[in-house]
Amino acid sequence: MPGCDKPRLSLKDGVMPELIVEEPTVLECIDGFGDCQGAVENRTPLSASGRSFPRCEKHWEARLRRQDELLRRYPEQPPHDWSPLDAGESWGSEDY
Fold this sequence. Notes:
Elements: E1 8-11, E2 17-20, E3 41-42, E4 54-55, H1 57-73
Antiparallel strand pairs: 1-2, 3-4
């Protein structure tokens, strides 16, 4: 299994079992181009896809800042001064 570092036995041609040790998978930062800093880990998903991606500490912090910007720009709830009468716009699917 990829990423598994536990040894396992394998029968080769039904004869003597041999010990197979698989090397752990090395993660590479998806945002890194030689400017990574810190440990690379699969990070908590921030999008609705639910997928986690490997990022180093530096690029993870940048991704968290970007997520904060997106949440400020596109909040889940309409602003207190928002009205559908302003331009005939809707905020969510229940407004249609």
